[in-house]
Amino acid sequence: MQTLEAINNRASLKARLSAREVEQGKILKILDAARLAPSARNMQPWRFIVVRGKEQVETLVSRAFSEGNQVAKDAPIIIVACANPNDDIVRDGKEYYLHDVGMAVENLLLAATELGLATHPMTGVNEDELKRILCIPPEIRFVIATPLAYPVTDSYDEATQERLSERTRKNLDELVYHNEWGKSF
Ligand SMILES: Cc1cc2nc3c(=O)[nH]c(=O)nc-3n(C[C@H](O)[C@H](O)[C@H](O)COP(=O)(O)O)c2cc1C
After folding, report:
1. Which of 14, 122, 169 to mutate to test the pocket of ligand 1 (most atoms within 8 A of CB)?
2. Probe target for ligand 1 pocket from 14, 82, 123, with the most ligand atoms within 8 Å of CB
3. What does the radius of gyration of the chain's CA atoms come to, in whole angstroms?
4. Which residues contact residue 107 at a Cβ distance below 8 angstroms, ignoring those fewer than 6 apart?
5. Which protein residues touch ligand 1 with a CB less than 6 Å away?
6. Span 3-175: which CATH code?
7. What is the pTM of this model?
8. How far apart are CA 19 and CA 22, in angstroms?
9. Within the chain, where are the H helices?
């Protein structure tokens, strides 16, 4: 039940980040949710860098994030998800490290939502610059980053109101087929 609630309430909230510190216990809970994600052959390719501290966050965001993602500077924490592509399977040319890191990151976003914290997945980042700043070895790929912050509003629900009211998603009948491709469910 709580999972469905978090799925429904999660929204990307880069415009609503407060500088308030996030408790270490909450950060660990969120990272643990990511750790428990499934992965191909249980290879767990994900690695996370928790970037914390005003100066560290500002340096990373101002130098490596795209113009549209500069607001991530407001957050006390940026979580950067990376992986070594060789730490996961490649099947029929498909590199599953991206899939598996994505699963872990979704767990992370949902756990943050349940704890009343704002996130916003971002790939609008200069990978080379990010890797230089964070001393990431050449063989590791940056996958995605998210600010982690309390919302500026009193409650999480207040922070998401506008974003959720504008949410657009394809209808199920555009996405789901019955027994064969193209047949409506
Ligand atoms: C792989 C990925 C990359 C994204 N990159 C960015 C980004 O660089 N900047 C940004 O503002 N939003 C980014 N987003 C957020 C999406 O735009 C957002 O998830 C989508 O519009 C749906 O909105 P919602 O998350 O509030 O439901 C990204 C999301 C994903 C999953």
Report:
1. 122
2. 123
3. 17
4. 33, 34, 36, 37
5. 11-12, 14, 68-69, 121-124, 144, 163, 167
6. 3.40.109.10
7. 0.98
8. 9
9. 2-9, 24-35, 54-64, 96-114, 127-133, 156-165, 172-175
Tens-digit pLDDT profile for the chain (185 aa)? 689 999 999 999 999 999 999 999 999 999 999 999 999 999 999 999 999 999 999 999 999 999 999 999 999 999 999 999 999 999 999 999 999 999 999 999 999 999 999 999 999 999 999 999 999 999 999 999 999 999 999 899 999 999 999 999 999 999 999 999 999 99
Residue 179 CA to ligand 1 center (angstroms) comes to 31
- The encoded tokens of residue 46 equal 């994900």
Taking CA atoms only, the protein residue closest to ligand 1 atom 4 is 122
